[in-house]
Structures are given as structure tokens and as C-alpha cells.
């Protein structure tokens, strides 16, 4: 009788482990499939842009955050653009400090920096408007 009970417990444990391993595998494939759906959503959205390759490179790392949500897609895109514009402004500011620039070159660089700052302000305003739109929904 003890052999039967031990065999029964061993079989129960084995079946439970088998079930759990199959369950884990199905969860992993579902997660992978879901992530692929999110990436496909982003790729489709990026295909309608002027620079689809750059759009994909910027947004695909955020697929699990964006999911298939158009507002999150826009907010993420705007946030990435703001950060890139700030980096660009910083780089150009460093260029303006180079010695040997003519007065014209300095003026051109300052004008460029002002244009980038205006762009950053407009991007921030767009991000704020997206937040207000989100609040309405």
C-alpha cells in the first residue's frame, strides 16, 4: 500500500510539473506574441512618417510601454524628440564656443540655437496638449 501511495504522489508531482511547464511555455509565447503585435503596431505607424527607419529605431525599444495605444505612441515620440532636440542644442552651443569663428558664423549658430529652443518649446507644448487630451478621455 505504501508503494502505491508513493507512486501516486510521484505521479501527481510529475503531472503537476508537466502542467506547469506547459503553462509557463504558453505564457512565454503569449508574451512574445503580444510584444510582436506591439512592434507591428509601431512599425505600421512609423511607415506613414517621413523617416520610417529613424522612427522605428526610436520607438521600438518602447514597444512594451506604448503597446497599441496611439496616445502613448505620440507622447513617447514627443518625449524622445524633446530629448534629441535638447542634445542637439547642447552640441551646437559647444560649437559656438570654438575659437576662430567669424562674426557671421557665430550669428548663424546663435540663430540656429534659438530655432532649436523654439522647437523644444513647441514640442513641450504639444506634449502638454496631449496630456490635456488624455484628461478629457
TrEMBL record:
Keyword presence, Cell wall biogenesis/degradation: no
Superkingdom of the source species: Eukaryota
Signal peptide: 1-28
Molecular function terms from GO: enzyme inhibitor activity
Keyword terms, alphabetized: Signal
Residue intervals passing through the bilayer: none
This protein's record includes keyword Signal: yes
Domain Pectinesterase inhibitor: 37-137
Family: Belongs to the PMEI family.
NCBIfam families with a match to the protein in the record: PME_inhib
Protein name in the entry: Pectinesterase inhibitor domain-containing protein
Amino acid at each position: 500500500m505504501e508503494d502505491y501511495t508513493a507512486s501516486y504522489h510521484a505521479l501527481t508531482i510529475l503531472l503537476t510539473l508537466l502542467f506547469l511547464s506547459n503553462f509557463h511555455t504558453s505564457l512565454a509565447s503569449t508574451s512574445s506574441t503580444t510584444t510582436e503585435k506591439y512592434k507591428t503596431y509601431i512599425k505600421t505607424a512609423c511607415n506613414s512618417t517621413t523617416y520610417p527607419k529613424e522612427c522605428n529605431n526610436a520607438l521600438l525599444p518602447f514597444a512594451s510601454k506604448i503597446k497599441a495605444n496611439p496616445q502613448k505612441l505620440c507622447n513617447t515620440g514627443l518625449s524622445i524628440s524633446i530629448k534629441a532636440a535638447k542634445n542637439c542644442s547642447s552640441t551646437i552651443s559647444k560649437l559656438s564656443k570654438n575659437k576662430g569663428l567669424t562674426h557671421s558664423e557665430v550669428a548663424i549658430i546663435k540663430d540656429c540655437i534659438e530655432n532649436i529652443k523654439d522647437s523644444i518649446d513647441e514640442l513641450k507644448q504639444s506634449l502638454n496638449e496631449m496630456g490635456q487630451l488624455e484628461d478629457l478621455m
